[in-house]
Amino acid sequence: MIKQEYLDKAAVLIEALPYIQRFNRKIMVVKYGGSAMIDEKLKKNVIADVVLLKLVGFKPIIVHGGGKEISRWVGMVGMEPHFVNGLRVTDEDTMEVAEMVLNKVNKELVSMVQALGVKAVGISGKDGCLLGCRKKTSGGQDIGYVGDVTHVDPKILYDLLEKDFLPVVCPIGMDDHFHSYNINADDAASAIAESMQAEKLAFLSDIEGVLRDKDDPSSLISELTVSEAEELIREGVVGGGMIPKLQNCIDAINRGISRVHILDGRIPHCLLLEFFTNEGIGTAIMKDESQKFNREFQK
Ligand SMILES: Nc1ncnc2c1ncn2[C@@H]1O[C@H](COP(=O)(O)OP(=O)(O)O)[C@@H](O)[C@H]1O
Ligand SMILES: CC(=O)N[C@@H](CCC(=O)OP(=O)(O)O)C(=O)O
């Protein structure tokens, strides 16, 4: 007997067939945040969705975080994690731990993809000079080896896609002097999506999407134009990590990505439901002139 979960997936995909054909071979960047990697089953669900996207003809690229795991290891080696405006203060020791942990998470995700029969290659932003950066400061404050992406060289990603590999990228970059920097994974994902003019950019987090009241999941805003998103930031409706995330979405749209999505990576089949159903499950952000309330499979 066929398992119900496969039948559900098949139903979503059958409904989405015209869309799948229209966007065949288009690049999708999926930012998979550490807060949505809470257990093995959920991780497997997300990876299964990404693999399915690849099998039906898209070209997905995973850019992952691992903030929670880095903090756990920083604690294990007897240091205290510190953040300024959501960015990890990264001294030399922290940089070493962050790079080790992100590489570990990277290879775990690669294994999970490969366990489903699709070949993946895990790289950091240092490989092939993918992510060039310079030292970032936060409000004039020195926060150590935190990088601002200044340049993306996507050649390595095009080469991997061309050879049919699924790229898995961790957010470590290099400056002009080949020093390693810790880059916020949202920044890395949007920089990559912009440089490749991806069809889609999706941020998987541990919240339903953008909420009018952050403690009330039923206040989910399903669709937002850039102006509305800017207003939510100005009015203080969004706070914490959602401010830079939404700003990244706005910037990505202003730089040519047509739709960007913020969704809950803890929901089974979140990517399929967001991309391939008219209602979606998260928040879709789009240009001001886009047609709202008619996702038409997120045109
Ligand atoms: N209006 C809002 N809607 C949704 N999330 C919000 C809002 N305001 C603040 N947040 C916070 O932003 C967080 C998401 O950002 P962040 O923790 O940086 O995500 P991630 O670690 O997955 O990249 C949510 O968990 C929530 O606590
Ligand atoms: C500079 C900075 O803060 N870098 C992040 C990189 C990982 C990340 O962004 O992970 P999530 O997506 O899981 O938050 C960090 O060290 O936590």
In short:
GO terms for molecular function: acetylglutamate kinase activity; ATP binding. The chain is of the alpha/beta class. It contains ten helices and 14 strands.
Task: Write a structural description.
The chain has 299 residues and is α/β, with parallel strands linked by helices. The chain has one domain (4-286): Carbamate kinase (3-Layer(aba) Sandwich). Helix content is 39%, strand content 24%. It contains 10 helices and 14 strands. The chain has helices at residues 4-15, 17-22, 40-55, 67-76, 92-115, 155-162, 185-195, 226-234, 242-254, 270-276; strands spanning 27-32, 59-64, 83-84, 87-88, 120-124, 131-138, 141-152, 166-170, 172-174, 180-182, 200-205, 223-225, 259-264, 283-286. The strands form 4 sheets. Strands 5-8-2-1-11-13-14-12 form an 8-stranded mixed β-sheet, sandwiched between helices. It has a two-stranded antiparallel sheet with strand order 3-4. Strand 1 (27-32), helix 3 (40-55) and strand 2 form a beta-alpha-beta unit. Helix 7 (185-195) runs parallel beside helix 9 and helix 8 (226-234) packs antiparallel against helix 9. The longest helix has 24 residues, at 92-115. It is globular. The mean pLDDT is 92. The structure holds adenosine-5'-diphosphate (ADP) and N-acetyl-L-glutamyl 5-phosphate. Adenosine-5'-diphosphate binds next to helix 9. The record marks 31, 245 as: Transition state stabilizer. InterPro entries: AceGlu_kinase-like_sf, AcgluKinase_fam, ArgB, Asp/Glu/Uridylate_kinase, NAGK-C. Belongs to the acetylglutamate kinase family. ArgB subfamily. Substrate binds at residues 66-67, 88, 182. This is Acetylglutamate kinase.
